[in-house]
Amino acid sequence: MDLSGLNERQLEAVKSTEGPVMVMAGAGSGKTKVLTTRISYLISDLGIPKENILAVTFTNKAANEMKERIGNILNINTKSMWVSTFHSFASRLLRLEIDKLPPYTKYFNIIDDDDSLKIVKEVMKSMGDLYTAPKEMRGLISRSKNFLDFSIKNQEKRTEFHRVLDAYEARLKSENLLDFDDLIIKTIELFKNNPAVLEKYQNKFQYILVDEFQDTNGLQYNLMSLLARKHKNIFVVGDDFQSIYAFRGAKIENIQKFRKEFLDSKLILLEQNYRSTEEILKLANDVIDKNPNQIKKVMFSNNNNGVKPVLYNAFSYYDEIMYVVDKIKQLILNGDNYSDMAIMYRANHISRGFEEELMKSRIPYKIYGGLSYFSRAEIKDMIAYLRLLVIPSDDFSFKRVVNIPKRGIGNAILDKLAITAHENNISLFEAIPYYKGKGQGADGLKEFKMIMDSIRLTIENVKLVDLIDILLSETGYEDELRRVEDEDTAEDKIKNVKEFKSVLKDIDEESELSNVEKLSSLLGDLALRTNNDDNNDGNSVILTTFHQAKGLEFKNVFMVANEEGIFPSQNSASDEEIEEERRICYVGITRAKKRLYLTYCNRRRVFGYDTDMERSRFIDDMDKDLLDSGIKKKSATIFVSKPTALKKEESKISNDNNCIFKTGDKINHKIFGDGIVVSKDDSTITVAFKAEVGVKKLKANHPSLRKL
């Protein structure tokens, strides 16, 4: 077999076939090439039957790519090979052996999350009123099966959980069902209860390979450990620098656990990167070197013709957004494609401002691994609530939110209400007082109307940004999210909704209309804020979180919102959590092939409040000689303190930023466009915009302004 395409360390990894081997493969170092070449080498040069090799990874895409590469190298059919995800491997094995775990039979069914939730609901319904919502209970059951250290502190919830879990498990057994989380658990149980079965598969799988080893949880580690104990020919590939999935149960400790269990294991470092320039890798090395307790690697590249990563200190979030959009336009003019670019961030809600400006600039974009901001269900719900406040005759919006949260208002009641509305020639909302029905649904309709009428009366007496908090509280929407969603999902959705306050803040400041008129104008505009994803032939700027970006690469990467409380996350307090946040930073940096831009701003509009920000400690930790920071604002304030959370209240504006503009400066305003400063005083500037806008007097430190 031709191995001439491998570097020295890759070749060593392929040929080290006997005994336990750990390969620490840095970002872009060709780990998939090593895995597939090693499997091909075992088959072609050592004569190992393909059915005696087991390779496991985390996604079907990765497994299929491995099979395809092996097939191309050896010109063989790889369909029957044991190359799959952990769960597919467990499922395949259980189909052959699960009858040794009575009462299960090989005809068992695997239920998805929806069916699992349905069973949880049925079980809980049979128990009467319970403290925990079914969706949260389903999440707890899943965590209990994936986290070996799972526990529940609340005694009432803990007691309830065990009651439901026992009934849920009994139901699955009685119907010959396994949920997705059971697959690995039942395989381990099978092996422990049936030593002969374990020995059979230990003999079968003479060579075991594990991809993305840093992402394995305790169960996955235990499963591979059981299988490898006889021949000890286990080959694990991973990168402790890229372990960023602790929230899913990944245990970075498995790397040290492996080295302690297999004391004679060989360690091979893949440090040559084939993706990024040397300038980008120097910065990545500098960042990750601050983490203790890791296997030392120094990534390098033979691509020495790159440029330094750029650090940009923006005055405001709008300045940051426009800097990124302007750079994208410039790169396009220089011959790059939109698909060469990615905007990456730590928190989903950060995408909103970038999406709006990309749409205004007619730049195609896609949200990778998620929905665009205005397509998210919780945002559509808020928009529907606002529409109904302004336009009570909006039947479409009424039908969307009348039963969110649940008020016992089903389709049958809505059909009857529609008849009442038709008979009186009025809208569904206006027909509620005329509805003659009785019971929970009828009461729910009356309560809904009372809430909406009450909020409508306050619209002109509150700030528009406060309207979101009022809706979340008075309608019970926030409580419902926390009740029916798992904790992380609920928190993410609530942050998305609160980011909508920034949309309201923009229009609240830029208009002298009444609040109802402002809302009407905004809601009409929102209908146009849709991203035309389907008409750009894949040539789109990618917007993504760092977690979603792992495994991807782009010619140009913009890492935005590098500020304390956002990145690192305000939820990261312990040393271990900060170390993981730093690994996330490393993952972001190493997605870039040619150009890397890091941005942060002095003031950011966070959930409707203009807040003083402090740049991320990860930026402070960087060797400034590795960065091109010459383009940052001369007036930029350098922050050095390390807050643990974002400030909740609207902060006072520092006088330091009051005089950043001078007469004659060309500026851009988010709403009014480009203009020239014609005069200024201590805190305000007078700007001449285009004729249709005219001359405006503005606060000099407003976040909607940027210097051109």
Could you please describe the fold and organization of this structure?
α5 packs across α6 (134-146), α12 runs antiparallel to α24 and α15 crosses α22 (515-526). The model is unreliable at 531-535 and 631-659 (pLDDT under 50). The protein is an alpha/beta fold. The strands form 4 sheets. Strands 9, 10, 11, 12, 13, 14 and 15 form a 7-stranded mixed β-sheet that branches. Strands 3-2-6-7-1-8 form a 6-stranded parallel β-sheet, sandwiched between helices. Strands 19-18-17-16-20 form a 5-stranded antiparallel β-sheet, with no helix packed on it.
Give the helices and strands, then pairings.
Elements: H1 8-15, E1 21-25, H2 31-44, E2 53-57, H3 60-74, E3 82-85, H4 86-97, E4 109-111, H5 113-126, H6 134-146, H7 155-174, E5 177-179, H8 182-193, H9 195-204, E6 207-210, H10 218-228, E7 234-238, H11 253-261, E8 266-270, H12 278-288, E9 310-316, H13 317-333, E10 341-345, H14 351-360, E11 365-367, H15 377-390, H16 395-401, H17 411-424, H18 440-458, H19 464-474, H20 477-484, H21 487-509, H22 515-526, E12 541-545, H23 546-549, E13 554-559, H24 575-589, E14 592-606, E15 609-612, H25 617-621, E16 666-669, E17 673-680, E18 684-689, E19 695-699, E20 705-707
Parallel strand pairs: 1-7, 1-8, 2-3, 2-6, 4-5, 6-7, 9-14, 10-12, 10-13, 11-12, 13-14
Antiparallel strand pairs: 14-15, 16-17, 16-20, 17-18, 18-19
Helix pairs in contact: 1-2, 2-3, 4-8, 5-6, 5-7, 8-9, 8-10, 12-24, 13-14, 15-16, 15-22, 19-21, 20-21
